[in-house]
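Sorry to interrupt, but I need a hand with the structure work. Go ahead and set the record down below:
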Amino acid sequence: MSNIKPLKYIIFLAIIPLSLAVPSFAKTTVLQTPSIKKNFSYDGHIFFNATKSGVQGERYLLNEQLSNIKLTTDWQLTSWLKWHGLLIYNTLPTPITPSLYFEQAYFNLTPSQWPNRFISLGKKWLPFGSYKNDLIYKPFTKALGQTNAMAIELGYDNFYYTNVTLYHPHTIMYSSSLPAYYNLNAGLHDQFYDIGVSYLYSIADSQLFQYNKGFGGFLGQSIKSHVPGSAIYANFKYRQFNTYLTYISAMHPFYAEEISYQNKGARPAAFSIQSGYEFTVRNLPLKIIGFYDDSYEALALKLPKKRTGVGLNIYPNKCLDIQFQFFKDYNYASNIIAKGLNKSILGNSNVTNTFALQLVLNF
């Protein structure tokens, strides 16, 4: 971590001119001016990952890359205007995640005359699915469906909630004349559950379709397939127990020359279930997690067919999280063939084990 010290100066210089602003063990500073009180909070994390796996080249499916540094900030500029930012330093860049970048950077408007309504403007994750996750690696549904874009979001949030988002597409479809694509999300929630459905105008804009270890992805491409995405999710929490369920799917197949499965147009989908139990041992908080993921016609995206495993999270104090995860991957059968943009990907029937350890320093 010899480059952490100069990195602090990079982050500091980035924060000052951009007036950054976000959550977890957040620290708050109150600045006084003659006319306005400004509340600024920040939350930082450094991630250290160690993995031993029979699967090569899939660290891009980690929730956080090795030695990532994240700085989230919130700045309440006025009673109705808030800035939210998430700055990331990434030691393992990819075509869609460079070394230093803003994963989120947007303004949130909540005018007092619009109770429970808000407008967001900037770069953010689209509300497509609800990817609750307590593990080091992403569930298949999060890998398949999460979409980051420049967007305008209009939302209503109460017991019932709904979001309408217009976003700038990463991959243009020849058949669409829309200047911006859209995402719809609706559901209901309280302190015990969150249940909802989502629609995405083009699932080709999700990050796994943009970049993957299979055919490479659609980043910088134009395509003729217009394939919307759908999501159904249900998250439950009661006392020490929680369960997260998500199903993500392309709504119909792609053209076979763009993504195929067994020589037909592929319709990728994924299902994930994750259940956890929180408990303490000698005043040490712990959480044990069991999970199962399944994918469908997603060989071209280089997702395994199935994954099952367990995780253990330990929280010694507010400055340190320790996370362990073990899982077994079952890959697509050796008689399965997929293609993406004319690149062939073959199944291999391999069963592989992965052990992962992650330390998170909170500051």
